[in-house]
């Protein structure tokens, strides 16, 4: 299983030969200026919520690739209005089998609106059960609900925001990892904007002191998990 980081909370994971792209936000991200959204491939696109920093390139990539978009009902309706046709709506608590494995939608404690400010439904996280199980929290605060995430699906790794201010910071991300008994964490949602700049050495040291493996791939880097 490989993980490719496109910056902010956008990444792709190869699962059983299928490319799963999450929260496509590339073109407006100055830190990802060497990545072209026009070259990013996807078989599936999973969208955690409607904020612009998670959907900026969603419509263009979905139309170009024909990828199946997995999202909540409100984003499903919005995408239909944008001319996207290959969409599967889900909602919190729901689980569905796809050709690469199963997706379960779980609670994310955050807000969600479309770029024009209209209502975008509830934010979600995703638990993917395949040859390895993993959890992408989406934008969220630390919640006690995270204790439920690994039940029936012990996690090989998790993808968590660490930038603080708009989401949980690195200390709460470390607490979340312990709550889920998941000791490998990939950090996302940091450094993109002044509000969420982190001291990477300090953050890595905190995870190490807490017995956790924190991965911070460079933008454009692919790592094997």
From TrEMBL:
Among Gene3D superfamilies, the record links this protein to:
Ribonuclease Z/Hydroxyacylglutathione hydrolase-like
What residue stretch is flagged as signal peptide?
none
Q: Name one Pfam family in it.
A: Lactamase_B_2
The answer, when asked if Membrane is one of the entry's keywords, is no
What molecular function terms (GO) are annotated for this protein?
hydrolase activity
All copies of domain Metallo-beta-lactamase, residue ranges: 7-178
This protein's UniProt keywords = Hydrolase
Concerning SMART domains, the annotation shows: Lactamase_B
Q: Which domain of life is it from?
A: Bacteria
Matches recorded under InterPro entries: Metallo-B-lactamas, RibonucZ/Hydroxyglut_hydro, UPF0173, UPF0173_UPF0282_UlaG_hydrolase
- For the keyword Hydrolase, the answer is yes
Q: Which HAMAP family match?
A: UPF0173 (MF_00457)
The family note in this entry says:
Belongs to the UPF0173 family.
Kindly give the PANTHER family that the UniProt entry links to this protein: UPF0173 METAL-DEPENDENT HYDROLASE MJ1163, UPF0173 METAL-DEPENDENT HYDROLASE MJ1163-RELATED
Name this protein carries in UniProt: UPF0173 metal-dependent hydrolase ESA94_05175
In its UniProt entry, the species of origin is given as Lacibacter luteus
